[in-house]
Amino acid sequence: MKTEDIVIVGGGPAGAYLGYCLAKKGIYATIFDDSHPREKPCGGGVSHLALKKFPIIKKTPGMKGIGKKMRIISHSGKETKIGSGYMIGISRLRLDKFILDAAVSAGTHLIEKRVLDVNNKNGVWHVKTKNKVFKTKLLIGADGVNSIVRKKVLGSHKKENLTLTYGYFAKGLEKEVTLMKFLKDKMGYIWIFPRGDHTSIGICAELKDGKGLKELLDEFIKEYYPKIKILSTYSALVPTITDTNFFKIPCTGENWVLIGDAAGHVDPISSEGISYAFWSGELASKSIIKNNHREFDSMWRSEYGENLTKAIKLKSLMYNSHFIDLSITIASRSKTFSKLFFDITVSEQEYRTLTRRILKDLPRIIKEFIF
Ligand SMILES: Cc1cc2nc3c(=O)[nH]c(=O)nc-3n(C[C@H](O)[C@H](O)[C@H](O)COP(=O)(O)OP(=O)(O)OC[C@H]3O[C@@H](n4cnc5c(N)ncnc54)[C@H](O)[C@@H]3O)c2cc1C
User: Fold this and answer.
1) For the chain, which ranges sit under pLDDT 70?
2) How far is CA 145 from the centre of its chain?
3) Among positive and negative, which fits the CA dihedral 263, 214, 180, 185?
4) Closest CA to ligand 1's atom 47
5) Where do the structural domains in the chain lie, given as residue ranges?
6) Would the pTM of this model clear 0.90, i.e. be above it?
7) Separation of CA 143 and ligand 1 centre (Å)
8) CATH second-level architecture of 2-311?
9) Ligand 1: residues within 6 Å at CB?
10) Pocket test for ligand 1, best of 17, 110, 143, 166 (most atoms within 8 A of CB)
11) Contact, 242 vs 158, CB < 8 A?
């Protein structure tokens, strides 16, 4: 049996970025992941704020020249375009491989094996692969929505906290702008993320409303883009938490930490999880470097915990069809309003500034509506 100091199960953005940040400080963890290179089911949409916070993402090969505007359509067909720099699409094959390669180049150890089981025996984790068992003092669950580490330490994500997705990797939409079309009577949307040489087009809704998603997406394609060429199909789950109490439960224990999807750190409205994967990886690294992994819990709560709980509270409003129609109509007449409503990544301070600007702008908007 081989003993590792830190084992990270999963080399997606959360696990790979954690490994990278640790290695940069001379701490060399071991990542287990047998999946690369692979195109993970994903839109690959990354907000400009995430790019600003994690500039390493911009170095992903093949990112140049990808469109930056975003078209937003309500279920009834009202639409607006929001400004440049909001959201871009990235191939997860490229992004994930790039971050994992960066972690390995910095000194992280990669074992290309699937972890079959993890067991805590007298404070030491036994990490089982097909042919070997490894021991570790600290176990990190970065193994995504179906995390086996999460299953062991807290229990799997509950059904009510899952969103179902269905989609295609396709060709023929590469010159389009990023698109989001809200669904009727479901908390979900259709997306288009052009990614340079191909596009991810898909649909999502809460798991309980997941029936019929394929049909809705196919109808949309038939109506808007009948000429696209489908390369492959995907369907997968994303954790989207519906109860604020979920975030009161610690993501760390005596000798374990959960990050990224395994921790449920995904925007509950938009299912944006790439930025939180990086963010949680970075914060977990800081806590481990301080030799106090349990501090990760207070760190993520203070940095982005409020974003997540606020999103849960706002979700039904944000998917209310009248509200969407009204906000799209107003947003098409006011850039400030458009940012306030559709840029879910604006900070508290920006939010206040935007609201003040909107109040100033309101007479002009009302005038335009009436005359
Ligand atoms: C269809 C779809 C569309 C999405 N669109 C967007 C989007 O546009 N923008 C956005 O920000 N987010 C999006 N998300 C969410 C985003 O994909 C995730 O939040 C993000 O990938 C989380 O990163 P992670 O590293 O925590 O997990 P993952 O990316 O899932 O990585 C987990 C890794 O762990 C590995 N693994 C799992 N089990 C084991 C095991 N037992 N042993 C070894 N390795 C294991 C897997 O192979 C994988 O490489 C989408 C999700 C889906 C399903």
Assistant:
1) 1-3, 64-68, 84-86, 341, 343-348, 365-366, 368-371
2) 11
3) negative
4) 35
5) 2-311
6) yes
7) 8
8) 3-Layer(bba) Sandwich (3.50)
9) 9-15, 32-35, 40-45, 114-115, 142-144, 148, 165, 167, 193, 202, 236, 238, 260-262, 266, 271-275, 277
10) 143
11) no
